[in-house]
Amino acid sequence: xxxxxxxxxxxxxxxxxxxxxxxxxxxxxxxxxxxxxxxxxxxxxxxxxxxxxxxx
Length: 56
Prior knowledge:
Oligomer: single chain
Structural class: mainly alpha
Helix content: over 70%
Largest sheet: none
Radius of gyration: 22 Å
Strand content: under 5%
Shape: rod-shaped
Mean pLDDT: 82
Low-confidence stretches: none
Order of helices and strands: H
Number of strands: 0
């Protein structure tokens, strides 16, 4: 009986988990785009070149 309930709960939660994961992926993508744009804007304001920083 418990095994049946556990299986039913897992099946019911799976779409919710999938939806939450998809939302997290969308959020992370937007956050990364925002950070990139923000970096570019700040670099332009400071007139700093973007790219790799080389340490000698």
